[in-house]
Amino acid sequence: MPANLTPQYLDAERRFREATTPEEQLAALNEMMATIPKHKGTEHMRADIRRRMAKVRTEAARKRSSGRGPTWHHVPREGAGQEVLIGPPNAGKSRLLAALSNATPVVAPYPFSTRTPFPGMVPFENVQIQLIDLPPIAPETAEPWLFALIRQADGALLVADLASDDLLSSMEETLTLLERFNVSLGGAGAPSEDGGGAEGRGSSGSAGTSQGPGADGRLDILRELYASRWPILAVSAETGMNIDALRLEMFRLLNVIRVYTKARGRRADLSVPFVLKRGTTVQDAAAVVHKDFADRLKYARIWGTGTFEGQMVQREHVLEDGDILELHA
Ligand SMILES: Nc1nc2c(ncn2[C@@H]2O[C@H](COP(=O)(O)OP(=O)(O)OP(=O)(O)O)[C@@H](O)[C@H]2O)c(=O)[nH]1
Ligand SMILES: [Mg+2]
Q: Region Disordered: start and end of each range (predicted)?
């Protein structure tokens, strides 16, 4: 049976095809329903319009609920600890991650090139430290997830570009935003920070191997302003200057120790440390090695710094980085 569709119906159908929002789609579908001739021959078409209406409504609702909260990024912890790269736009954060790890973040001579967190693993001696490259800290990027990620990290490397004329004002802007979002760098219990000054690069953005003009002076000013709060290190991703020193600084920042275990009469495997918080006692370490051990532990012997070889120690003994433990139950 021919449907005998009216020009009004055909017009509404065209508007449905051209609609770009769910609201426009729904309006057009309602119009189609109102103008479609109601007889047996259009029964299927009317059922189809109702189905499409339901679909548009559920899809719009789904979009609304998922669109209500802003995007949230989280990076699962890996390795000996998690640190983040923070700083003003175009400071050299991404390039620093590339210099420290095998990660391949986007590096670009313009600001706001990093949009989402990008993690890499930084090798230091026999451990790997997770380092997350982040979008710059600026009013345009100041989203709650960014600051949550910084707060949750074990440490932060604040990067400033020593070749930049507005290094101090961009640094101040970064620090003000961090403060506004309740991120405290350093101080008791909070992540402390290392100020990495990216080495100077030509004002054209071309990678030069020498310090850019004025870099030394800017470094002096940075030191004057911030050295009492954080260690400051001038590094160059370009020449590799102080990149290894930065790895050591990253490890220090974690405030952890590496402890090894061995069985009686055997050698310890020094390639696989237990990474523990500084201040960990023999008792705490035993609990990490094996749950049951902690209860049955009688004493331990230690080979390491601060003790003589194989010294017998009690449960309360505080461990040092590099200690080898022989646990006796
Ligand atoms: N010569 C030299 N150039 C560098 C160094 N670090 C970064 N650059 C250059 O500086 C520009 C910006 O570097 P990025 O690492 O993308 O900067 P970013 O801080 O990640 O920038 P956003 O993600 O936009 O905040 C690029 O052209 C890099 O090649 C460095 O140590 N030496
Ligand atoms: Mg970047």
A: 188-214
